[in-house]
């Protein structure tokens, strides 16, 4: 059943990609559920940090469950980038910086609507460190985001003002990458925004669902999947990827 659904889903993605404006970096994912990442593919592991797993200040439900899946599936990739949320202690996304406001409320900042979060992933603190069990010895780049005090950055490509680049797209293009696979925390925020910006930058984009977990704030998970699928992001599981040892 999975393979039929997956073929249908990826077939739909191919049609979406074919209707998009041509772009030198845009490639359609193969019309199969057996994906074998080549040397032009990059795994982007998003924010698997202590703050975002059980015991952290902004835990994603079941967040640590992504670690063994990411460790295993990463063996199918020649190229791996890791991201870290990396905030100043007085970051504008922290509810603590807005008197009278509470975590998970929204506020209007100069660049638009912002969810207010508990303090998390402060630069250099244990909470901002990668989760201990993450084993990605071949990761080639760690990209830190959200380090401008006044601007949040869910996406690994573009900060929340929509103008300030992290440099990741240029790095991937310089490396000859045309396809990205995104996994990590959380599906409906940093994973989704990263995947959407990857599509905007012209990369074929997969999100590995079982290697990600969501916060799901007021329906944010379903909304994120709607936006991702409309943008041509393919939703897969690690089982669709070949080239790593199965449990
Ligand atoms: Zn953050």
Structure description:
There is one protein chain. The protein has a single domain (2-240), classed as Rossmann fold (3-Layer(aba) Sandwich), CATH 3.40.50. 23% of the residues lie in helices and 18% in strands. The strands form 2 sheets. Strands 5-2-1-6-7-8 form a 6-stranded parallel beta sheet. The chain contains 5 helices and 8 strands, in the order H-E-H-E-E-E-E-H-E-H-E-H-E. With 247 residues, the protein is of the alpha/beta class. The longest helix is centred in the N-terminal third of the chain and has 17 residues, at 2-18. The chain is globular, with a radius of gyration of 17 Å. Helix 4 packs parallel to helix 5. Zinc ion binds next to loops.
Tags for this entry?
247 residues; disordered N terminus; globular; Rossmann fold; binds zinc ion; alpha/beta
Described by the principal axes of the CA atoms, the overall outline is globular
How many domains would you count in the coordinates? 1
% residues in beta strands? 15-25%
CATH architecture: 3-Layer(aba) Sandwich
* The CATH class: Alpha Beta
Bound molecules: zinc ion
What's the helix-strand series? HEHEEEEHEHEHE
Q: Please give the count of helices.
A: 5
Give the proportion of residues in helices: 10-25%
The overall average pLDDT, rounded, is 89
**Fourth-level CATH superfamily:** Isochorismatase-like
Find the count of extended strands (DSSP E, 2+ residues).
8
